[in-house]
UniProtKB/TrEMBL annotation:
Residues 1-20 are annotated as: Disordered. GO terms for molecular function: DNA binding; DNA-binding transcription factor activity. This is Helix-turn-helix domain-containing protein. PROSITE patterns: HTH_ARSR_2 (PS50987). SMART domains: HTH_ARSR. Residues 23-118 form the HTH arsR-type domain. It comes from the Archaea. The keyword Transcription applies. The keyword Transmembrane helix does not apply. Keywords: DNA-binding, Transcription, Transcription regulation.
Length: 134
């Protein structure tokens, strides 16, 4: 183990940016932007649905979430800007025409599973630990 970040001593660093390794692909600010993006209820639900469905069209997302087109595309754009989702445009026309598909990135899946969903799972643990009826 390296000594940067106080890992050898188990102490946290003074500067939070030192929590990342020197070779980190993203900066602390970029990670925080991802957290802020998924902290919005609509964007959380979009990433949640994309992770579970693998990929969806905006039309499919709209039918599941009942959002107007401009609101949906605004949130899709925000999520794409921070790297939590990506889009793919089909090159072949199907019976309904050309489609744009969205899917979660690896970072989107990770922030969902190890961030928000982990906190939600811990809520169940807290409820069980402090349940006076058992």
């Amino acid at each position: 183990m390296g000594t940067r970040h106080g890992r050898a001593t188990g102490e946290p660093p003074d500067d939070p940016s030192e929590l990342l390794p020197e070779t980190s692909i993203l900066s602390l600010d970029e990670y925080l932007e991802m957290q802020a993006a998924i902290g919005n209820r609509t964007r959380f639900e979009i990433v949640y649905r994309l992770v579970r469905a693998d990929e969806l069209t905006p039309t499919e997302l709209d039918s599941k979430m009942d959002l107007d087109d401009s609101t949906l595309h605004y949130h899709l754009g925000k999520l794409q800007d921070v790297g939590l989702i990506e889009k793919r445009v089909r090159t072949e026309r199907d019976s309904d025409g050309l489609y744009t598909y969205y899917r979660s990135t690896v970072l989107g899946e990770a922030i969902l599973e190890h961030g928000v969903e982990e906190l939600l799972r811990r809520e169940w643990d807290f409820t069980d630990a402090y349940d006076s009826t058992t």
